[in-house]
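Practice record 12: protein with glutathione.
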Amino acid sequence: MAIQLYDLTDASRQVFFSPFCWRTRTALEHKGLEFESIPWHFTDKEMAEKTGHARVPVISAGGGWKNESSAIAEYLDQAYPDKPALMKDDAAKATAQFVEAWCISSVFGPLRPLAVMSVFKIIHEKYKSYFRESREKALKCKLEEISQDPTAEKAALTAALRPAEDLFGKQSFFGGDAPSYADYVLFGTLMWP
Ligand SMILES: N[C@@H](CCC(=O)N[C@@H](CS)C(=O)NCC(=O)O)C(=O)O
């Protein structure tokens, strides 16, 4: 049976913008596993009632449900050892952890001005007030104030991504000439906007 993946979507159910869900989606593709994407909207209760988790990604796994994108990646390697590894050794695992921490410390911030209003515009009307309230509380400003100076924000993003740009001038992937989970962590992050 295909794995089910709850994935955050927009009003049209055609656009998927969660950086963490993209990590899981590409991890499933890397492993060549059949999966069914189940579009999920912020606060929809059905998923929490069915899976016990309120945040995505969530996948069906071994008769239960798994959440947390990094834990899902580790689970997929353990559960499907005959499929291509996402993290073939401790070095690949450490690289993925480092890229994850770097995305949090240095990449999500400069992406925020590009992403938050874009997401707000495309989500279903029903969830806009939740999105506005939760994000304005977390960011301590109005959604409309998140982007103040697009030119400076673009420059900050370019600077934040420079270490990766320099590396990818020399090699194709974080681990050399083949993709691993670290690449999907950065790719997913960049899919947010
Ligand atoms: N650390 C978690 C983060 C999951 C997360 O924050 N997911 C967001 C979507 S990007 C979510 O479900 N948000 C629901 C909400 O904001 O109510 C992971 O890596 O899976």
